[in-house]
UniProtKB/TrEMBL annotation:
It comes from Clostridium gasigenes. Its EC number is 6.1.1.18. It is found in: Cytoplasm. CDD domains: GlnRS_core. L-glutamine binds at residues 66, 210. PANTHER family: GLUTAMATE--TRNA LIGASE, GLUTAMINE-TRNA LIGASE. Belongs to the class-I aminoacyl-tRNA synthetase family. Its main location: cytoplasm. This is Glutamine--tRNA ligase. Residues 27-335 form the Glutamyl/glutaminyl-tRNA synthetase class Ib catalytic domain.
């Protein structure tokens, strides 16, 4: 798999330059998620970048779980992340866990103490914050900063043995409390946390901090280009300090790029977890979620997500991408390959009074209107059909060309029908319309006698499959002015899901199973859902409507 779409990517240029200058024989990248939630489309950008570079330049890419935070991590997330990376179409060269390096990290902490570059500190978190200083004022040195090497070694050992409570002590790097870069003001290396770890169980009660662990993980794996998001730019001097002072054998280079943001959604595992935990969505794979699992369930294809990630490019400039851009790529991908079908989502019974009772026929209709080579399918037709309620108006508005009393329309792939009679219930609600058809007007018969202005779709009421259609709107209303600055949970769109119960033509969906995609005439692209489909009823998720004004 190569980068099919050429767009700007400054990291790719750095790699090309490094290879040309023989700085490396080959590159090694990594995708390092923390297993504290499911991956989202922002992670896809990082996956496509890291695995894409390794593939293109015949290097290697590791999948590494950055699991240094036991209270938030879980094997469920580890498994889902593996599934998502594979589903996106990538294979990792090696699978690693940061927790596998806990021994090495501990040794490196001892090395730092021995070099006089780390100390155990007893300041409380509040004191530590106060001592840290601000952007404009220097920090203050901790009173524990000048403990002897022996005392530090002894205390770290006791921390490891579990002799102190959570938060009682930390190990800190001894760098510079007056540094203009706050990250260099004696950052924490180890903290105490008496928590069970998904991988190491209860073997450890001290855990390394991200800023210390990450550069060591990269160096241990001989990563050449360590790509991360922009918020770590100010941490780079610290990253380089740890690699150097821990005397690592290899020197990875950290390169930052702008994270992906998309309109009308939130993009952080923590926030997505809140949506799940508060039952605002029905799980991490809810089709309204920007998670890879949610997009997959909604019906996005790996190709469409990869193409989207390649098209947005990689730069240092933060920007927010319109969610319609993602829709553009799924339409592009599905238009040529998703077979057509007709489905009625808000059914109204239509009876053709002059069509013989008990009779039915199979009408040939093209599988893909834009590609003849995909052939025809047989669609069942009989005296009783369902049409969309919206395709009938008792009193038509101006320019309404669909069915109304006295008007004639074409039934897609079938005949002209004319509405003659309306049946209502006791509440005055239209329950049925009675029409007559003209046998001469059969589709494909070459009939040119007269024209109609509207074509509507239908399904055979006597031979169809009940189906539910789940239509989605954005989960977050972030572009409404009244929502500006509000907490994301207050910006939830109350109408993000609409479930309609209707029918779908039977032949097209005869063998339909989870993940099959259809182009439903006039409604859009749909995916067969795995959670709500039952033996009696298919459940479809709308991926996108057919058209959008968005142009790439
Ligand atoms: P989150 O806040 O969603 O948990 P994170 O950055 O903490 O995101 P990690 O699991 O640490 O999540 O991320 C793994 C990799 O994915 C990191 O290298 C990170 O930079 C990258 N990544 C995460 N979010 C985005 C995003 N929105 N755009 C691009 N890359 C991202
Ligand atoms: Mg994180």
């Amino acid at each position: 798999m190569t980068n099919e779409i050429n767009s700007s990517n400054f990291i790719r240029n750095i790699v090309i330059e490094d290879l040309e200058n023989k700085k490396h024989d080959g590159i090694i990248t990594r995708f390092p998620p923390e297993p504290n939630g499911y991956l989202h489309i922002g992670h896809a950008k990082s996956i496509v970048l890291n695995f894409g570079l390794a593939n293109e330049f015949k290097g290697k890419a590791n999948l590494r779980f950055d699991d240094t935070n036991p209270t938030k991590e879980d094997t469920e997330y580890v498994e889902s992340i593996k599934d998502d990376v594979k589903w996106l179409g990538y294979k990792w060269d090696e699978l690693f866990f940061a927790s596998n390096y806990f021994d090495v990290m501990y040794e490196k902490a001892i090395l730092l103490i021995n070099k006089g570059l780390a100390y155990v500190c007893d300041l409380t978190p509040e004191e530590m914050k106060e001592y840290r200083g601000t952007l404009t004022t220097p920090g203050k040195e901790s009173p524990y900063r000048n403990r002897s090497i022996e005392e530090n070694l002894d205390l770290l050992h006791k921390m490891k043995k579990g002799e102190f409570k959570d938060g009682e002590k930390v190990l800190r790097a001894k760098i510079n409390m007056a540094s203009a870069n706050i990250n260099m003001r004696d950052p924490i290396i180890y903290r105490i946390s008496h928590a069970s770890h998904h991988n190491t169980g209860d073997s450890w009660c001290i855990y390394p901090m991200y800023d210390f662990a990450h550069p060591l993980e990269d160096a241990i794996e001989n990563i050449t280009h360590s790509v991360c998001t922009l918020e770590f730019e100010d941490h780079r001097p610290l990253y380089e300090w740890f690699v150097r002072e821990c005397e690592m054998n290899s020197t990875p280079r950290q390169i930052e790029f702008a994270r992906l943001n998309i309109t009308n959604t939130v993009m952080s595992k923590r926030k997505l977890k809140e949506l799940v935990d508060n039952n605002i969505v029905d799980g991490w794979d809810d089709p309204r979620m920007p998670t890879i699992a949610g997009l997959r369930r909604k019906g996005y294809t790996p190709e469409s997500i990869r193409n989207f990630c390649l098209a947005i490019g990689v730069s240092k400039a933060s920007s927010t991408v319109d969610s319609q851009m993602l829709d553009f790529f799924i339409r592009e991908d599905l238009q040529p390959k998703a077979p057509s079908a007709m489905a009625v989502m808000k059914p109204l019974k239509l009876v053709i009074t002059n069509y013989p009772e008990g009779q039915s026929e199979m009408l040939p209709i093209e599988n893909n209107a834009k590609d003849e080579s995909q052939g025809l399918r047989e669609v069942s037709f009989s005296r009783e059909l369902y049409i969309e309620r919206e395709d009938f108006m008792e009193v038509p508005v101006k320019k309404y060309f669909r069915l109304f009393p006295g008007n004639e329309v074409r039934l897609k792939g079938a005949y002209f029908v004319k509405c003659n009679e309306i049946i209502k219930d006791e509440n005055g609600e239209v329950t049925e319309i009675h029409c007559t058809y003209d046998i001469e007007t059969k589709s494909g018969s070459g009939f040119t006698g007269r024209k109609v202005k509207g074509t509507i779709h239908w399904v055979d009421a006597n031979n169809c499959k009940p189906a539910e259609f789940r239509l989605f709107e954005p989960l977050i209303l972030d572009d409404a002015p009244e929502n500006e600055g509000k907490h994301f949970l207050e910006q939830i769109n109350p109408n993000s899901l609409e479930v309609l119960n209707g029918f779908i033509e039977i032949t097209a969906v005869k063998n339909a199973s989870f993940g099959d995609k259809y182009q439903l005439f006039r409604h859009g692209f749909f995916n067969v859902d795995n959670k709500y489909t039952t033996e009696d009823k298919l459940s479809f998720n709308r991926i996108v409507s057919l058209k959008s004004s968005f142009k790439l």
